Amino acid sequence: MQTITIIGGGLAGCEAAWQAVRQGISVVLYEMKPLQFSPAHESELLAELVCSNSLRSNAVTSAVGLLKEEMRRLDSLIMKAADATAVPAGSALAVDRDRFSVFINTKIEEHPDIEIIRQEVTGLPEQMENPVILATGPLTSVAMTESLINLTGERHLAFYDAIAPIVSADSLDMGIIYRKSRWDDDNPGDYLNCPMDKEQYNEFIDMLAAADTVPLKSFEKTKYFEGCLPIEVMVERGRDTLRFGPMKPVGLAHPETGQVPHAVVQLRAENKECSMYNMVGFQTKLTYPEQKRIFRTIPGMEEADFVRLGSIHRNTFICAPELLDQTLQVKKRPGLFLAGQLSGVEGYVESAAMGLLAGLYAGRLLRGKPLPVPPASTALGALVRHLTETDPGRFQPSNVNFGLFPPLEKKVRKKERGLFRAEQALSGLAAWKNRLAEQGGGSAVQ
User: In the CATH scheme, what architecture does the domain 163-313 have?
Assistant: First the structure.
């Protein structure tokens, strides 16, 4: 049986393995845990979620919801796991992070055509007889990073991503906190809301502005991803920035009094038992003592028991437009695929999606089949377009969004654009799947 090698057992690496074995290809998957852990990882399981437990909107009329649906139609392992371990989160898809990883770990470990080698790979192979997928993630080791730099001749870009705290549900004061999803008046809602009046909010902002943070090392440059800014960085941009961001009170009137608070801290369930809650949008690089001191001033969180405190870690990615072709292969090394956040996308779903394409393409390359690119009208195609056609001088990691899609060919009313794009994308995806089947034989995605 023909074999491909995958380096990295995160979401992208596991998805790539799944897509390869579906084509009758065997996989050797290298994962350094539990022998070695990155600064942000702590579980021995594959596909560990280290930041939020939310995969964001599940609505097909949103770009990320559309990407999820496209992945479902391509038999994505990550989406199977997410749907099987979902927790209440309104219109979003959030998961029980432990069950999510166990689901994927079990599928990968029990598959007869996947061999897992628990060993750190410190460099790229000098000679490759078969395809290799590098999916070591945003915390790629220094050694592997240097190996990739030596191959490409390009310096990596880097930004910093922050993790939000998690609190124990039984430590929250439900006499103050109320349950409600934004704009949802028909049921209690899936989110817990900690309301603040104007005075409480201003005091909270003053504390954040004066708080101690974890300093970056002298050789590190601060370059945050705009979609995941630490709250203290947002405070620096203006006193009301949080009120128009993660603490926005709009649509969150108290269900009993009807009063709209000046600001709200929202909490989202971390597991199916709802025994733990994530502080939504509260990524932070505050020191641990400062987090406990300041966050316990939030109404309803005075006695909060922090299951996990926030932290900050380095994220590494390549300048994809200069280095990758449309099939995610390194231009200087055909047969070497890059997947996940390392390739230049941002977000759980987007990372897994690039793993899906890398696994699909690596398998087809090994089988001598054509590698057609998804239509740009699809969410998958839009991400590939972002990675390969963006001006290299302005390239930054991005979540999937409709701004990455080609302009609409006809005028469509704003309220109908999401549905129009979804119909267009899923039609294009179906045609692409048929093309894959015609060129590769077997199932529709082979």
Answer: Beta Barrel (2.40)
| Distance of alpha carbon 53 from alpha carbon 353, whole angstroms | 17
Burial label for 315, CB within 10 Å (0-12, 13-18, 19+), is buried
**Does the fold of domain 163-313 match that of domain 3-156+318-440?**
no
What is the rounded distance in angstroms from the CA atom of residue 412 to the CA atom of residue 286?
A: 45
CA distances from 7 to 60, 224, 225 (A): 32, 26, 25
Q: Measuring CA to CA, which residue among 204, 208, 348 is closest to residue 285?
A: 208
CB atoms < 10 A from the CB of 334, how many? 13
Q: Which amino acid is at 374?
A: P
Residue 277 to residue 275: CA distance in whole angstroms: 7
Domain ranges of the chain: 3-156+318-440, 163-313
Is residue 11 packed enough to be buried (19+ CB in 10 Å), middle (13-18) or exposed (0-12)? buried
Closest CA to 19 of 85, 74, 92: 74
Is 200 within 8 Å of 208 (Cβ atoms)? no
What is the Cα–Cα distance from 233 to 378, expressed in whole angstroms?
Answer: 34
The residue behind tokens 């704003």 is: 414
Give the confidence band of 38 by pLDDT, cuts at 50, 70, 90. Answer: confident
The tokens for 233 are 């960085």
User: What average pLDDT does this structure show over 364-379?
Assistant: 97
Longest dimension (CA), the chain: 69
Q: Contacts for 80-83 with beta carbons within 8 Å, 24 or more apart?
A: 80/107, 81/47, 81/107, 82/55
- Once rounded to an integer, what is the mean pLDDT over residues 365-388? 97
pLDDT digits (tens, 9 = 90+) for 390-417: 988 878 788 899 989 999 988 999 899 9
* DSSP for 183-246, written as a single string: T--SS--SEEEEEE-HHHHHHHHHHHHH--BPPPPTT----B-GGG--HHHHHHT-TTTGGGTT
Mean predicted lDDT score pLDDT of the chain: 91
Residues 40, 396: Cα–Cα separation, whole Å: 22
- The candidate with the shortest Cα–Cα distance to 197, out of 144, 128, 259, 273, is 259
Contact 26, 114 (CB under 8 A): yes
CATH 3.50.50.60 fits 3-156+318-440, yes or no: yes
Residue 7's H or E segment, with its range, is: strand 3-7
What secondary structure, in 3-state letters, does 306-353 show? EEECCEEEEEEECCHHHHECCCCEECCEEEEEECHHHHCECCHHHHHH
pTM: predicted TM-score of the whole model, two decimal places: 0.83
Structure tokens at 131: 């395809």
Burial of 279 (0-12, 13-18, 19+ CB in 10 A): buried
